[in-house]
């Protein structure tokens, strides 16, 4: 009887489509999930890239302008553009799962210089991630650097510039460049099913477009808390 039943099942074709669908459903779901995950990863890459470029661009434009003097960059200006980053990156929680470093790479003669020196004059940071995979890969400076127009807060000399080997960014003589580095832990939709833990890394830079006062970064009254790189906040 069992043999006859088995032969009957082999000849049965009424539910063939349903059986084929049941067999293929796990494969289709797995491949579909992979497509969604990789599309989300690509979208995260694009968003991080755009955030880095927007931050560098905005940092190269802001400041207190006057027709009688050069533009002063203030701590409140930096905090304002970081507020823009928070809004722009809210969908991916960048400040929770990543770290942003904004560096002012300058090649401008200061009053205490004998000759012009290219240096990281100051750095400001945003984000909770810490460690060698998240802090600046291309040079650091002190938290007080650039806060006064003195040799003690001159920053860190970077004669070769900032960036990866073969793609170093240098400031033109007499100007500054806003250099942004972002490191972000990608947050997958399906855990580690399709991909291991991945860190997205992007850099961007824009030259300062106005006639900026490069002597220091100002903090006039009412003063604000600078976003220095010893802070790890969202």
Report on the biggest sheet: 5 strands, antiparallel
Individual helix count: 4
Apparent shape: elongated
Q: What order do the helices and strands follow? A: HHEEHHEEEEE
β-sheet strand percentage: 15-25%
The end-to-end distance, rounded to whole angstroms, is: 71 Å
Mean pLDDT: 91
Counting structural domains, the number is 1
Poorly predicted spans: none
Structural class: alpha+beta
Textual characterization of the structure:
This protein has 234 residues and is of the alpha+beta class. The chain has one domain (15-207). It is built from four helices and seven strands. The strands form two sheets. A five-stranded antiparallel β-sheet has the order 5-4-3-6-7. A two-stranded antiparallel ribbon has the order 1-2. A hairpin with a 2-residue loop joins β1 (64-66) and β2. α2 (16-59) packs antiparallel against α3 (75-88). The protein is elongated, with a radius of gyration of 26 Å.
């Amino acid at each position: 009887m069992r043999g006859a039943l088995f032969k009957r099942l082999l000849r049965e074709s009424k539910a063939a489509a349903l059986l084929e669908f049941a067999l293929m459903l796990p494969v289709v779901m797995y491949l579909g999930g992979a497509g969604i995950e990789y599309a989300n990863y690509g979208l995260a890459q694009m968003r991080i890239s755009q955030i880095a470029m927007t931050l560098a661009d905005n940092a190269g434009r802001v400041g207190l302008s006057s027709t009688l003097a050069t533009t002063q960059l203030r701590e409140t200006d930096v905090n304002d553009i970081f507020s823009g980053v928070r809004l722009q990156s809210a969908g991916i929680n960048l400040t929770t799962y990543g770290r942003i470093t904004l560096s002012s790479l300058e090649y401008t003669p200061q009053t205490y210089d004998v000759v012009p020196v290219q240096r990281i004059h100051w750095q400001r940071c945003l984000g909770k991630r810490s460690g060698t995979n998240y802090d600046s890969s291309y040079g650091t400076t002190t938290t007080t650097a650039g806060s006064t127009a003195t040799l003690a807060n001159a920053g860190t000399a970077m004669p070769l510039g900032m960036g990866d080997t073969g793609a170093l960014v240098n400031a033109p003589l007499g100007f500054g460049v806003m250099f942004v580095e972002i490191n972000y832990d990608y947050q997958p939709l399906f855990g580690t099913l399709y991909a291991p833990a991945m860190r997205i890394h992007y850099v961007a830079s824009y030259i300062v477009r106005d006639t900026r006062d490069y002597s220091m970064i100002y903090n006039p009254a009412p003063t604000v808390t600078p976003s220095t790189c010893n802070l790890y906040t969202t």
